[in-house]
Structures are given as C-alpha cells and as structure tokens.
Write a structure and sequence with these properties.
Elements lengths: L3 E5 L2 E4 H20 L7 H26 L1 H6 L14 H19 L3 H26 L27 H23 L10 H16 L8 H5 L3 H35 L3
Helix pairs in contact: 1-5, 2-4, 5-6, 5-7, 6-7, 7-9
Length: 266
C-alpha cells in the first residue's frame, strides 16, 4: 500500500485524497462535455452540478454521523474531527441526488436528462477513485486464500484479503461500458427521449454493492438481517432505479401510441 504520496515536514499529501480528486475532477469535466448530447443549458446545468457536488460531500459524511449518532451527541466536539469515522459512497450519491432534484426545479433544468448526463462519468469516478481506497488500505476485504488475495501491510505475514476495492473498480468499469453501449443504441434523438441511463445506473450500482458487500471485512449475516444503514440506502437506491426505469418505459410506450394515432390519416 502507499497511503502517503509525499510528506514535507508537517505537511502530508495522502494518495487517497489525490486519486479521488482526480476521479471527481475527471467525472465533472466529462459531464460538462456531455451536456450538449442531451441539449441542456450549460450555465444552468453547471449551477445544479455545483450544488449537487457540495451536497455529495455533506452526504458522504452524514452517514457516519447518523450511524453513530449516540456517540457524537455524547461527544459533540467529535463532529468536527474529520479524521474519525469514514465517508459513505451511498450517502454521497443520496445527497447529490436530492440536491440535484431540488436545484433542477429551481433552475428549470431537466432532472432526468441531467442524471443521464452524469451517470456514466459517475461510474468513471468509481473506477478511478476506488484505487485510492486500495492504496490507502481502507475498505478492506475479508481474509481469504483466494488466488487474487492481497497482503496488506497492517496484517501479519501470510494473511491475504479480498481486494474489494479492485473488485469495485472493475465492476464499475463494466457497468460504465454497458451504459455507454445502451446510450449509443437508444439515445439517438431528443424528440423521442425517455430516461434510461440514470435508472439503469442506479440498478447496476446497487447490484454491485450487494455483490461486493459480502467480501468486506465488516460483513456478517447478523448485520445484514438487522439492515445496516448502507444496506437501507442501497435498497432505496435500487427501488428508485427500478421504479424510474419502469415509468420511463411506460411513458415511452404511451408516447409512441399517441404519435402513431396522430400520424394516421383521417
């Protein structure tokens, strides 16, 4: 592992922070370039994305506070200790999603189109960012004798773990490729547009999380049965994705029927 990129005196630059900064910056720049594909106003869309990004950071941290609220209420100063606890990917997604919805209404930007715009770059952010987790040695997997097992410096000699961070990255890359193929095939004109990419991304993201969670260090059947905060959030994300996709298809069918009816000569 390589948690510290470099250190000069008291100044330390973490590899985790640098890689995630690169991941998020790349995703944002790609999203901006994709706005034209969906015919969105660039200035208004940038404003929505900015506030969604801010809420994403808040949401990433809020899961830590909610999951351990009793501790933080008993130790209020720990609210400001950002080195304690962790960041939540599901919390970040939830925060960004909610803020984007609110700001889209305010700025009068198509929320569905904007979500389709950022869904694929968002997957790229996971592809890159999870390598930051791997080099940092966080989000570790369970001990295993699997051939792909990796030895982490904090473990005793001979102990290997599932490289869950790399599993995340590889699966996210596959999801990104699937979304690109679906977009190329179905999103051909704005005239008959109906949202597919974003709800499909939510569904596939949730499947990825459910698939990889059993390989995480903290996983246990008891934790699953009592519905950990992360499981609750991922389940809600999956439910939103399925509902959204079904409604999109229903809308597409109804639009097609109306178009065919109006096209018939009287």
């Amino acid at each position: 592992m390589y948690p510290v990129l470099f250190q000069i005196g008291g100044f330390r630059l973490d590899t985790y922070s640098v890689i995630w900064l690169i991941a998020l910056s790349t995703a944002i720049l790609w999203s901006i370039r994709r706005l034209k594909i969906y015919g969105l106003d660039e200035d208004k869309s940038r404003s929505v994305m900015f506030w969604a990004f801010i809420m994403m950071l808040i949401g990433a941290r809020s899961h830590e506070y909610i999951a351990n609220i009793k501790f933080y209420l008993a130790n209020p100063l720990e609210f400001f200790n950002l080195n304690r606890g962790s960041l939540s990917e599901a919390g970040a997604l939830s925060g960004a999603f909610i803020m984007a919805f609110v700001m889209s209404l305010i700025k009068k930007v198509s929320f569905k189109k904007l979500c389709d715009v950022v869904a694929i770059p968002g997957m790229l952010a996971l592809v890159i960012g999870r390598w930051g987790c791997f080099l940092n040695g966080c989000c570790v997997g369970r001990v295993t004798d699997f051939f792909a097992g990796v030895h982490f410096p904090f473990d005793q000699a001979g102990i290997f773990r599932h490289p869950v961070q790399i599993y995340y990255s590889l699966i996210a890359f596959v999801i990104m490729c699937i979304l690109l193929l679906v977009e190329k095939k179905f999103i051909r004109s704005q005239k008959n547009y109906h949202s597919i990419i974003a709800p499909l991304a939510l569904i596939l993201y949730s499947a990825m999380r459910f698939f990889t969670v059993p390989f995480r260090e903290y996983f246990s059947l008891n934790l699953l049965l009592r519905y950990d905060m992360t499981y609750k959030t991922v389940f809600i994300i999956a439910l939103i994705g399925f509902t959204w996709l079904i409604l999109s298809f229903i809308t597409a069918v109804l639009r097609k029927r109306v178009h065919e009816r109006n096209s018939k000569p009287e």
